[in-house]
Amino acid sequence: MKSSSVIKLSKSSLKNNLKLIKKLSGKAKFSLVVKGNAYGHGIGKYVKMAEECGADHFSTFSYEEALSVKRNTKNNPAIMIMGYIDNNYVGDCIKKGFEFFVFDFYRLNRAILEAKKLNKKAKIHIEVETGLNRTGFHEKELEDLFKLLRDNSGYLEIKGLCTHYAGAESISNYYRIKKQIKRFKKYISSFESNEIYPEKYHTASSAGTIIYPKTRYNLVRIGILQYGGWPSIETYVYYLTNRKNKKNPLKPVLSWESSIMNIKNVRAGEYIGYGNHYLAQEDMKVASIPVGYTEGYSRVLGNQSQVIIKGEAVNVIGVINMNLLVVDVTSFDNINIGDKVTLIGREGDQAINFSSFSDKGKELNYEVLSRLPEKIPRKIVD
Ligand SMILES: *Cc1c(COP(=O)(O)O)cnc(C)c1O
């Protein structure tokens, strides 16, 4: 192996997760959110695999990501850009048939201008402000908005009306979300009474889909669930309370493997690694693994996490280095350079889930995953 580790993507796990998503989405269509390099899974390989599993709608943050989706899929899926497009590329988005969020007059005017130049309709999703206070048209802007939409109806295809909630995964945001839901309903009425009928209404992410099923409308934007993670512990608990079967129905798609680079014996009383973070209290055997924080293995996990070697969980000792971590292999009689090391994944009864990383480091599943660098090769497995 040329690289010091490899990330494997399990197709059967993805199929399993998509089945659950289909159930949770009810009558709504689902779009798979693949921003952040498909939450660290590697957008190119990932969307190829997802398409083979039946996905036909993807959401990205940027134009650049939309290009990756297009390059790596075959069946011309819908591609929806929810965030960044350089003003100079709005025309290319229209040319390529990408759908994109329009959240202010700056982008809307550009879209109309480019659509006229190309004589091709821009496929837009109108994002409205309901209380996240990030992006989106405000109620006060509706009159001007409606006029522009009407005057340019020949150049615009209104694919959607949408908003995003301010943290549906946490019950502490309950009142804020409820208020947003109410405000979104008002927008729907305004649009309809002005005889503007967007094709889709969409507001729910993974958490919204589970906790506030009425917010699903006819399209949901699913991120973390497809990869086998929950938006928060609260969401998971909420899901379980309504079920007889108390087993986690999701399966992690991603696993991460490396191998032993070096093995050495250390005498009792010696410190291991930088500083004085780990003191050998007995004669020990330790192995170096060529993965560190450059590879996305968080420094927070020093002296905290475990890896799996030969089906056994072993402790990571000392601090995480830039490109190395050290594990305790004292208990093994027969261990060799090149032996497989599972950093995330399952071997026999032992499993290390990415969510255990986020628990230990008090980080979000989202952070742990999206930090995995692009340079690590991804491999699709069954
Ligand atoms: C990231 C994102 C989602 C998906 O969120 P998950 O919690 O991963 O399901 C949906 N909508 C928007 C606008 C997003 O930015």
What radius of gyration results from the CA coordinates? 24 Å
* Large-scale geometry: elongated
Question: What molecules are bound to this protein?
Answer: pyridoxal-5'-phosphate
Secondary-structure class: alpha/beta
Provide a quick synopsis of the model.
The protein is α/β, with parallel strands linked by helices and 382 residues long.
Question: Can you describe this structure?
Answer:
The protein folds into two domains: 11-240, Alpha-Beta Barrel (TIM Barrel), CATH 3.20.20; 254-352, Lyase, Ornithine Decarboxylase, Chain A, domain 1 (Beta Barrel), CATH 2.40.37.10. The model has no long low-confidence stretch (mean pLDDT 96). Helix 3 (43-52) packs across helix 4 and helix 5 (90-96) crosses helix 6. The chain has 382 residues and is an alpha/beta fold. Helix content is 32%, strand content 23%. The strands form three sheets. Strands 8-7-6-5-4-3-2-9 form an eight-stranded parallel beta sheet. Strands 17-16-10-1-18 form a five-stranded mixed beta sheet. It binds pyridoxal-5'-phosphate (PLP). Pyridoxal-5'-phosphate binds next to helix 9 and strand 9. Pyridoxal-5'-phosphate binds at residues 33, 35, 82, 164, 205-207, 221-224, 231.
